Amino acid sequence: MSYKIAFLGCGSMNEAILAGLLAAGVHKTDVIATVRRGERADELAKRYGVTAMATGEESDANQQAVRGASLVIIGVKPIGVTDLAAEIGPVLPHGAVVVSVAAAVSIEQLERALPAGQPVIRTMPNTPARVGRGVVSVSGGTNATREQIDQVKELFANLGLVVEVPEEQVDAVSAVSGSGPAYAFYLAEAMADAGAKLGLDPELSLLLARETVVGAGYMLAEPGADPAALRKAVTSPNGTTERAIATFEERGLPDIIADGARAAAERSRAITRELG
Ligand SMILES: NC(=O)C1=CN([C@@H]2O[C@H](COP(=O)(O)OP(=O)(O)OC[C@H]3O[C@@H](n4cnc5c(N)ncnc54)[C@H](OP(=O)(O)O)[C@@H]3O)[C@@H](O)[C@H]2O)C=CC1
Ligand SMILES: O=C(O)[C@@H]1CCC=N1
């Protein structure tokens, strides 16, 4: 791994990727990160020992960061992606691969904002990348070579599971694995609240909920794990779990989750249209 990697925008998502790659052996001197606020740049520099610059302090920080980079990972909010691409375009090394982690920004929109011929790869990661248990989808742009796509897949394999998907599927990937950690955290929150309502000390209930979701996650991580089979192994006939699952089914929880994922994918398509 001998890339010089520029992280442009380093908030929740790009920090998770940065942390995951450093933990996997990418050298901190091969990494540079930009943000807007000086205090955030200081935080990243202190936490990871990387060079971090703030556009609030050096207005050309993004341009400085991409000079000499072979990989540029754009991690700003979707609304800022094409402006940032246009800003770095004039100084971007010709062969530098531009990776976007942004939801909703299409390859076509990004390619249009960059110099002609710039290789682009659109990804959809998730924050468990920070602990090497992420999921990252990869979709190659018009100018990305097979070799460049494979190199990015190899690098991101350090973050967890990498899948290559056609771009049309990114909104669905986003609705399942991009947003998915939030769904799992939401479940943990709801379980903790439920325990407190049943009379447990709220702190104890939160601990039980957290460790239960973690433990279930470990079991799901075993090769060939089947969530339905694992669930059935907890569910004794006419026992307690059966009543809980029956209540979830009666209340339509699977449909609620499907509706939520559909709403997420629809929002992604709407943002793409809004960005024009
Ligand atoms: N959060 C997630 O779980 C996931 C997010 N994504 C995608 O990742 C992208 C970032 O999201 P997220 O990390 O949550 O957002 P955050 O708001 O946490 O991070 C955005 C970062 O971009 C910085 N920034 C904004 N504008 C500029 C600029 N012009 N130049 C340099 N830095 C800039 C901000 O700096 P400062 O901190 O100083 O304001 C901040 O560090 C989005 O496009 C999102 O769709 C994709 C999958 C999952
Ligand atoms: O909420 C969002 O828009 C981003 C994309 C996927 C997860 N977080």
Automatic annotation (TrEMBL):
The protein's annotated pathway: Amino-acid biosynthesis; L-proline biosynthesis; L-proline from L-glutamate 5-semialdehyde: step 1/1
Keyword hit for Transferase: no
Catalytic reactions on record: L-proline + NAD(+) = (S)-1-pyrroline-5-carboxylate + NADH + 2 H(+); L-proline + NADP(+) = (S)-1-pyrroline-5-carboxylate + NADPH + 2 H(+)
Keyword ATP-binding: no
Organism: Sinomonas terricola
Gene: proC
Family affiliation: Belongs to the pyrroline-5-carboxylate reductase family.
Entry's Gene Ontology molecular function annotations: pyrroline-5-carboxylate reductase activity
EC class: oxidoreductase
PANTHER family cross-referenced by the UniProt entry: PYRROLINE-5-CARBOXYLATE REDUCTASE, PYRROLINE-5-CARBOXYLATE REDUCTASE 3
Domain Pyrroline-5-carboxylate reductase catalytic N-terminal: 4-103
Function of the protein: Catalyzes the reduction of 1-pyrroline-5-carboxylate (PCA) to L-proline.
One Pfam match: P5CR_dimer
Protein name: Pyrroline-5-carboxylate reductase
Main localization, broad class: cytoplasm
EC code(s) of this entry: 1.5.1.2
Pyrroline-5-carboxylate reductase dimerisation domain boundaries: 167-270
